[in-house]
Amino acid sequence: MRWNDKPYHTLDYELKRKYGEKIYKIALDANMTCPNRDGSCGVRGCIFCSAGGSGDFAAKDTSIARQLEQGKQYFRNKKVGERFIAYFQSYTNTYAPVPTLEALYREALENSTVVGISIATRPDCLGSDILALLDRLNREYTDKFIWIELGLQTIHEHTATLIRRGYPLSVFEDAVKQLQKISIPVITHVIIGLPGETKPMMLETCRFLARINVTGIKLQLLHILKNTDLVELYEKKTFEILDMMAYIDIIISCLEVLPPDMVIHRVTGDGPKDLLLAPLWSLNKRLVLNTLHQEMKRRGTWQSRCWQT
C-alpha cells in the first residue's frame, strides 16, 4: 500500500487530497503558560521541554493576525499554495479563560487564507467549558477544521512520572473520548527514545493509539535541548541516545502497527540548532527521511502491514 510516493499516510498526502495543493503550518505563540510551569501541577515543566514550551519556531507578536502575516513571509519564495494552517503551538493553548481563547481562535479562523486551526494542549486542560467552545466553533466554521494536538508521549506511567508529564493515562483517554463526541480530530504526540523505554514499550503506545482511534500521530525523536532537566540525565549517561538506524527501525515498526487511515503528521523532529545537544544526526532531516523511505522499500513494508483490528 502506498500514499502517492510514500509507504505511509502522510499529512502532506492528506492535505493535498482534500485541498488539491500543498498546505503549510504557521506556528503561533498565543502568550500562554502551562499548568506544569505555573505551579498548578509543577513549576519546571516536562524534563525535555525548552523554555519556549515546544514553540521555539513560533512567530512572536501580540497579534495572531500579525503572526500569520509573519509566517506567510517565510513561505513567500516557496512554490506553495495560498492557504495555511494556524498552529497554536507554544505551551498549553487551551490554558486561558474561554473569552480569551474564543477571541484568539476566531482571529485565526476568520483569516481568509487559513483552512483550519491546530491547537496544541494538554488533556487536563480541556474542561467542559472549553469543549463547549470547541464544539460551537466547529459547528459555526463548517468550511474550516479544528484539530486538537495532545502531548501523550507514552502510555507507561513510570516513564510519565519520570518526565513529569503531570497527569495519568486515564485523563488522556477521557479527553480523547470527549473530543471524539464533538467530532474534533485528535493528533497525539509520542516521543521515541524516552529514558528507560524499550522498543516493545514504544510499540505498546502506538498499538494503544490505534485501538482508541485517534485521527493522527506525531512520532517525535527525543531531543536533548540545552537548559532542560533532561540534560542532567543525559550527561550522567543514565540512558542511551538512539542512533539513526535504531530510530528508523523503531519508526518502521511503529508505522506497521498503525491503521491505514491514521494520518502521520511527523516521523522525526526539528530541534533548534542553537539548543540541540543530541542527537546531532537529527539535524539532517532530509537524510533521515530518505533513509527511512529506502529502508521501508528494502524491507517491502508499509504503514498498517501488522495492524490488527
Contiguous low-pLDDT stretches (5 residues minimum) are: none
Beta percentage is: 15-25%
- Average predicted confidence as pLDDT: 93
Distance N to C terminus? 17 Å
Cα radius of gyration in angstroms: 19 Å
Give the % helix: 25-40%
Annotation field: number of helices? 10
> In order across it, which strands form the biggest sheet?
1-2-3-4-5-6-8
Please trace the helix and strand order, writing H or E for each element.
Answer: HEHEHEHEHHEHEEHHEEH
Number of strands: 9
Biggest β-sheet strands, sense, barrel: 7 strands, parallel
Structural classification: alpha/beta
What is the molecular shape? Answer: globular
Describe the fold and architecture.
- By secondary structure, this protein is an alpha/beta fold.
- It has helices at residues 11-19, 64-74, 98-109, 128-140, 157-162, 169-181, 199-212, 230-235, 244-256, 285-299; strands at residues 24-28, 84-88, 114-121, 145-153, 186-192, 216-221, 224-225, 263-266, 276-278.
- Helix 7 (199-212) runs parallel beside helix 9 and helix 9 (244-256) crosses helix 10.
- It is globular and about 45 Å long.
- It starts with 10 loop residues before the first helix and ends in a 10-residue tail after the last helix.
Topology (SSEs and partners):
Blueprint: H1 11-19, E1 24-28, H2 64-74, E2 84-88, H3 98-109, E3 114-121, H4 128-140, E4 145-153, H5 157-162, H6 169-181, E5 186-192, H7 199-212, E6 216-221, E7 224-225, H8 230-235, H9 244-256, E8 263-266, E9 276-278, H10 285-299
Parallel strand pairs: 1-2, 2-3, 3-4, 4-5, 5-6, 6-8
Antiparallel strand pairs: 7-9
Helix pairs in contact: 7-9, 9-10
